[in-house]
Design goal:
720 residues; alpha/beta; Rossmann fold; 10-stranded mixed sheet; 3-stranded parallel sheet
Length: 720
């Protein structure tokens, strides 16, 4: 077993290539026996099974992993969106020599198929022509079972975001219960979590060198079974680090640790950060310490223990200090190794410089794959996010250490798009990643970074040890847009505006050159309680950014607007919070066409709140004060209705709610009212007289007793 303090990681491209490298590079990875024959292959070394259409583009996980393994000398085949009702399609490429790699696709299959209200979606962006129903629920489980049926003795390795977020016992929103680790439910042999380049390359080479799948223990970023604790390891119960019922003290990476006999200081009541054990173990002992989480059966029966396990797991996500975790599931135990060492810039460049064809597989003909249409002219410049938003899965999957490509590599990809894409018009649709403006941002001191256990670098405020210099990104923007043939580069990735305001020069650069009339940002809410549960900044940061945005737009002579996004029904949100948000929207002239309701994704901190009813950023106990959890269908509909206060379909529900809340004063036909007293024709809850209502105020024309939608996007023109 590897020690979690072992920071050495071989270069991704330093392995001796597998013997099959002699077959060369495939134009595209084969999806049929005929394609294998054209390449001269008698078998695949690795077969990747995915719930997505096969697009040979680095934004699609299986293409990236497949091309990376090909660069290591392996023959890689793809089984895309197979018929899962039998094992037949899982045999079409024959038996893989080394392993099956299984993923649900770029999206979690349950999130892909169901809305936050658990209704089946009518389309799938990762399928030709957007057709729905091309992947099963819990695709990782189903595909793995079919692989096992097809070839019983072939190792099965699961990965991708669906497996990543289910690596331990996890709350499942769709069944409203805690489920086992997906490693058990899928009956796979090994789980790789995160982007997984390091672990999948090591696994492939070790299997190629004759090791068995059971030999592959201790690889960072993997989860496997253990029959017994390896010799030399010390087990520490999770309550040693975060005792349910008592708030542990924080590990402070910036100061020397006090002696164990000193009384820990009191914690400030208004600090909304996870606290973990202050008294570190001796380094030698710590390097061989594994933390035992409460067993699956325990967390399945006790929501407080589940929240406790979530807190401990999130405290072990920094590659610099994370310890392994172990969790009992009945008679079996799973061992979760620490996260992988982040890729270097050189390694990131190598991954993105692989020979992708950048187009859908020829089998799809002229079919349109919506996700490909969105990203075909976009460039990923980095990965990871140190924001730590509690509802987001990026930290659990990609980690909070930013991994950036070099400027030269990014420019090379833009030129490749310009020179090879058949329908390129000179517009790059996005130059970003999980976050638009975290490129090359990191902790100022690597020692502090490797010791830190805080869940966010920017909440409740920006850490003084965080480098917020945007100059590298500004330089990249300028060089990219100066390329011949490039007319416009848009920034469509989520912008962290509380970081952006630290660099007025960056905001000016962005607003002057890279906004196409509208810029989407995500304050998520206006009220402090839900914001504190999200670990998002207050509206003061939004106001400062908006002031800069308006100023630089005016200086550039452009009429541009911010489009803020908000979440309904997030843990910690009351009906009054949503009412106040609706009043803010109306006061500022915003009309949201589409609204997002909180969806409890597996392993997220906010999901632990949703399941336990407690603020898991604070003290956890059965006696801890409950927080507002909008769970019922009626309340979730109401919270969404507040976001769309201007939609006549929502007015009957809002009238009842406002009366129950004692806010009938907001029902009327004046500008200061939230909703009118009348109901237009076609939206009646009872026959009522239809009255005039100003289009500019609502976005609807109510002439002659009928309703006609006249504007769908917000903000209202003329409002700033």
């Amino acid at each position: 077993m590897m020690s979690p303090d072992s920071q050495a990681a071989p270069n991704l491209f330093s392995y001796r290539k597998y013997w099959a490298q002699r077959f060369g590079v495939a134009p595209v990875l084969p999806m049929s026996r005929d394609e294998m024959d054209e390449l001269g292959w008698d078998a695949c070394d690795v077969i990747l099974v995915t719930g997505d259409a096969y697009i040979d583009h680095p934004s699609f996980g299986m293409a990236l992993i497949g091309r990376l393994l090909e660069a290591q000398g392996f023959r890689v085949g793809i089984i895309s969106q197979p018929d899962w009702t039998s094992a037949k399609e899982f045999t079409k490429l024959g038996r893989p020599n080394l392993f099956f790699g299984v993923t649900g696709g770029n999206m979690d299959s349950m999130v892909n198929r169901y809305t936050s209200d658990k209704k089946i979606r009518s389309n799938d962006a990762y399928t030709p022509d957007g057709a729905a129903g091309k992947r099963p629920d819990r695709a990782v489980n189903v595909y793995s079972h079919r692989c096992r049926e097809a070839f019983k003795d072939v190792p099965i390795i699961i990965g991708g975001i669906e497996a990543s977020l289910r690596r331990i016992a996890h709350y499942d929103y769709w069944s409203d219960k805690v489920r086992k680790s997906v490693l058990l439910d899928s009956k796979a042999d090994l789980l790789v979590y995160g982007n997984a380049e390091r672990q999948i390359v090591e696994v492939a080479h070790r299997l190629g060198n004759g090791e068995t799948i059971t030999d592959l223990t201790g690889i960072r970023g993997t989860v496997h079974y253990v029959k017994q604790i390896p010799e030399g390891w010390v087990i520490k119960d999770s309550t040693h680090f975060d005792k349910p019922g008592a708030l542990s003290t924080i590990v402070d990476p910036y100061q020397e640790q006090p002696a164990c006999d000193k009384k820990p200081p009191d914690l400030n009541a208004d600090e909304n950060v996870i606290r973990f054990d202050r008294h570190l173990l001796a380094k030698a002992q710590r390097a061989k310490t594994v933390i035992r989480l409460p067993a699956y059966e325990a967390v399945a029966d006790d929501a407080i223990l589940y929240a406790h396990a979530s807190r401990v797991m999130h405290g072990e996500t920094n590659p610099g200090n994370a310890r392994p975790l172990i969790q009992q599931h009945g008679t079996r135990q799973i061992w979760v190794n620490p996260p992988p060492i982040p890729l270097t810039t050189k390694e990131m460049d190598g991954v993105y410089d692989l020979p992708y064809s950048r187009v859908p597989h020829k089998d799809y003909g002229n079919a349109n794959v919506p996700a490909f249409e969105m990203i075909q002219h976009s460039v990923n410049i980095m990965r990871g996010c140190f924001g730590g938003c509690t509802f987001c899965s990026i930290t659990e999957h990609e980690g909070r250490i930013i991994q950036s490509r070099s400027e030269d590599s990014i420019i090379k990809e833009i030129e490749a798009i310009r020179d090879t894409s058949p329908n390129f018009t000179g517009h790059i649709s996005d130059l970003g990643g999980p976050t638009a403006n975290m490129y090359r941002l990191a902790c100022k001191d690597p020692k502090i970074e490797s010791a830190c256990r805080l869940p966010s670098c920017v909440f409740p405020g920006i850490c003084p040890n965080l480098n917020t210099d945007h100059s590298s990104l500004i330089k990249l923007y300028r060089r990219a847009r100066a390329l011949p043939g490039i007319k416009k580069i848009f920034i469509a990735s989520g912008l962290r505006y509380d970081l952006a305001v630290t660099s007025p020069e960056y905001v000016k650069e962005l607003v002057t050159h890279h906004v196409g009339g509208y810029l989407k940002i995500a304050p998520e809410h206006t009220e402090q309680e839900p914001l504190s549960k999200m670990m998002k900044p207050g509206m003061g940061s939004y106001d400062r950014f908006k002031e800069m945005f308006d100023k630089y737009s005016k200086e550039a002579g452009k009429e541009q607007y911010l489009i803020p996004y908000f979440i309904a029904a997030h843990p910690g949100t009351t009906d009054n919070d949503m009412l106040n948000l609706a009043l803010w929207l109306k006061r500022n002239g915003f009309r949201a066409d589409q609204v997002q309701a909180f969806l409890p994704s597996p392993m997220a901190i906010a999901t632990a709140m949703y399941h336990s009813g407690k603020d898991t950023l604070r003290k956890i106990s059965h006696k801890a004060e409950d927080i507002a959890i909008p769970k019922g269908e009626k309340q979730r509909r109401l919270h969404k209705a507040f976001l769309r206060y201007h939609d006549p379909k929502n007015w009957p529900l809002l009238r009842v709610a406002l009366k129950d809340m004692g806010r009938s004063d907001l029902i009327g036909n004046g500008k200061h009212h939230l909703i009118p007293t009348f109901q237009p024709k076609g939206f009646e809850d009872a026959p009522r007289k239809v009255q005039s209502f100003k289009t500019k105020h609502t976005g609807f024309d109510y002439k002659n007793g009928s309703v006609k939608k006249v504007r769908t996007s917000y903000p209202v023109k003329g409002k700033k």
